[in-house]
Design goal:
Elements: E1 2-7, H1 14-30, E2 35-37, H2 49-55, E3 57-58, H3 63-75, E4 78-89, E5 92-100, E6 106-111, E7 117-119, E8 125-127, E9 139-143, E10 146-150, H4 159-167, E11 172-174, H5 181-199, E12 202-205, E13 209-211, E14 217-219, E15 223-225, E16 231-234, E17 240-245, H6 249-257
Parallel strand pairs: 1-2, 2-4, 3-4, 10-11, 11-12
Antiparallel strand pairs: 1-17, 4-5, 5-6, 7-8, 9-10, 12-15, 13-14, 15-16
Helix pairs in contact: 1-3
Keywords: Hydrolase
GO molecular function: hydrolase activity
Domain CN hydrolase: 1-248
Length: 275
């Protein structure tokens, strides 16, 4: 399977952003991609609470989601929309990923499990839990070309999630993101490579990049990581398309060479206090 990672600098106009994303998806399919993955918050990057609540749609009403489903059917591709800001109540949102079949049907959704609540040393503050409802279930999607483990951005910092996905059969981990520049420079490549090595899986991470209309800056560097932990492709910092050919025989090879998924032990933790 040839996969494509779409790197975006998303703005705050859903209609305009949907058109731009659809153009890139169409270009990726024209280059032979049968699976296309987009970043977190694909068609709306909006930091203001009142504005995002006003602009977001319930899932059944989202014109962008309808356009993506129609395009997947037209092109006959598997489409992973890394996430959309999806309304779940009048004052509550979900950061929700969508896996769409070549017939344009939504095969699965996943709501981001781990919410990013932090104040960075430079003063930037993020409080996703004030507005977003966390998910409650991990999601694995079995497709004809591989089994997808669906995650979003901050989930990357929780290795137990990826181990659980691998134990359930996932051999391609999806990590769409809008990483900050500071944390991206420090941790992005290392964490993605670690998740690949730990699970013997491909890791595909489509990313947001550059300075957005809201003033926020994201790190870019959409990455494809091999099951052995090597960087197969790095998109750098410009919006665009990155193509990668997946060979799942490499998953089997990595897991046979280092069969750590079969060596799980149940154990107690003893705390010895000598303070």
């Amino acid at each position: 399977m040839r996969a494509a990672l779409i790197q975006l600098n998303t703005g705050n106009d859903i209609v305009a952003e949907t058109m731009a994303v659809c153009s890139l998806i169409r270009e990726a399919a024209g280059a032979g991609a049968g699976f296309v993955s987009t970043p977190e918050t694909t068609h709306l990057m909006e930091m203001n609470r009142e504005a995002v609540l006003k602009k977001a749609f319930y899932q059944d009403d989202d014109p962008g989601l309808k356009a993506f489903c129609a395009l997947a059917a037209e092109l006959g591709i598997w489409l992973h929309i890394g996430s959309l800001i999806t309304k779940v109540a009048d004052d509550r949102l979900a950061n929700r990923a969508y896996v769409i079949t070549p017939k344009g049907k939504i095969a699965a959704t996943y709501d981001k499990l781990h919410l990013f609540d932090v104040t960075l040393p430079n003063g930037e503050a993020y409080r996703e839990s004030r507005l977003y409802q966390p998910g409650s279930s991990a999601v694995v999607v079995k497709t004809p070309f591989g089994t997808l483990g669906v995650t979003i951005c901050y989930d990357l910092r929780f290795p137990y999630l990826y181990r659980a996905l691998a134990d359930m059969g996932a051999d391609i981990m999806l990590v769409p993101a809008a990483f900050t520049v500071k944390t991206g420079e420090a941790h992005w490549h290392t964490l993605l490579r670690a998740r690949a090595i730990e699970t013997g899986s491909y890791v595909l991470a489509a990313a947001q990049t550059g300075k957005h209309k809201t003033g926020r800056s994201t790190y870019g560097h959409s990455l494809a990581i091999s099951p052995w932990g090597g960087v197969v492709a790095d998109a750098g910092t410009e919006p665009g398309i990155t193509l990668v050919d997946l060979d799942l025989a490499k998953v089997a090879e990595a897991r046979q060479t280092v069969p750590s998924l079969t060596h799980t032990r149940v154990f107690d933790v003893k705390v010895i206090d000598v303070s």
